[in-house]
Design a protein that fits this description.
Layout: H1 2-26, E1 37-40, H2 46-55, H3 62-72, E2 81-84, H4 91-100, E3 105-109, H5 116-125, H6 131-140, H7 142-145, E4 163-167, H8 172-193, H9 203-216, H10 223-235, H11 243-250, H12 284-291, E5 300-303, E6 309-312, H13 315-336
Antiparallel strand pairs: 1-2, 3-4, 5-6
Helix pairs in contact: 1-3, 2-3, 5-6, 9-10, 9-12, 10-12
């Protein structure tokens, strides 16, 4: 009986010593992963995952890590993906990261004023996938846009520009849907600032106007003024004569005099009113300018120095502004020569 009791006591002490050792190991930190990133592939079990982490030296001991997984009940919660291990972490910290799915997110930056084709190129340049895949996804997502704008012809204008954070292997369609959802959030913000029944145009036309403002304005304070010019011309049935609409129609970066007669619904030198759809994807300031423009009598503007514009109420005043700018350019050219 005494021997049995002694054996039982030894077992208890051994288990306690093992537990003490394991808990001590849980407090030991590993090393940063080489390159900072470790990818956990889909389909790996807990044993394979801790083996991979040990090979990468993120954890010091796979067996104590496995013990922690069973102790914490996270065996079936470890998630695949890319994880950032750029500083030493303990085993509980590492396993907690995997169990919470705190995957590393890659930045996808979309500047204001890009077209869908431009964004597709950015998608490819930033290593997310091919431009073709992005455009195919964008074309397929037009039905999503039509749920809130039944006049939409494409997703052009509805891919909200900002910096997004996507996990690796995010599909082009997931990115497009995220950008459209973000656009809807921005429209909701606009409605809080200015009720939609007080907008000068309906939603569809407001987005078109915002895209024109985005294409013309380089200075934030001029956006509401530029919006007012186009609205004034619309109200007076004057051709908008917006150069970027011609460029959009021609899909080129330069405009020539002959192009002004180019037969396209986007050629606002020929076709009255707004073009049938947005010509770019405007940012929030341009959207705000379209629904809350400055009240003015301006009908013309011309770009001058430092990407600013001179605004005019009459054609005579506009022509004088154009002449003044040309003289300034000519003078600058002589000085440069």
């Amino acid at each position: 009986m005494k021997k049995l009791l002694l054996v039982f006591l030894v077992l208890i002490l051994a288990v306690a010593a093992l537990a003490f050792y394991v808990r001590g190991e849980w407090r030991v930190v590993g090393n940063p992963a080489e390159g900072g990133i470790v990818e956990i592939p889909h389909g790996l079990g807990a044993r394979a995952i801790v083996g991979l982490l040990e090979d990468k030296k993120v954890i010091p001991n796979r067996y104590t890590a496995l013990a922690y997984i069973f102790y914490s009940g996270t065996r079936n919660r470890l998630q695949a993906g890319e994880y950032l291990f750029d500083h030493p972490m303990t085993i509980p910290e590492v396993i907690g990261k995997l169990a919470s799915g705190a995957v590393y997110l890659h930045k996808f930056t979309v500047p204001e004023g890009l077209t869908a084709k431009d964004i597709a190129q950015k998608w490819q340049e930033q290593g997310f996938g091919s431009a073709e895949d992005f455009l195919n996804a964008a074309n397929a997502a037009v039905e999503v846009v039509r749920r809130f704008d039944d006049k939409a012809q494409s997703v052009e204008g509805y891919l909200f520009p900002e910096t997004y954070s996507f996990p690796r292997r995010t599909t082009a369609r997931q990115a497009v849907d995220t950008m459209i959802a973000r656009f809807q959030q921005m429209i909701g913000r606009l409605r809080q600032i200015q009720p939609e029944d007080k907008w000068p145009l309906n939603l569809h036309d407001a987005i078109i106007l915002a895209s024109l403002v985005e294409s013309e304005a380089a200075q934030a304070d001029e956006r509401p003024l530029i919006a007012s010019v186009y609205l004034n011309r619309l109200n007076r049935h004057i051709l908008l004569q917006c150069d970027p609409t011609v460029i959009y129609a021609l899909e080129q970066g330069n405009r020539y005099r002959a192009d002004l007669q180019f037969n396209s619904p986007y050629n606002t030198y020929v076709k009255p009113g707004l073009p049938p759809g947005p010509i770019s994807n405007p940012g929030y300031p341009s959207l705000l300018a379209a629904v809350q423009p400055t009240s003015s009598n301006y009908l013309f503007f011309v770009r001058t120095v430092e990407s600013r514009h001179t605004f005019s109420e009459t054609l005579a005043a506009h022509n004088r502004a154009v002449d003044a700018y040309r003289k300034l350019q000519k003078s600058a050219g002589k000085k440069a020569g």
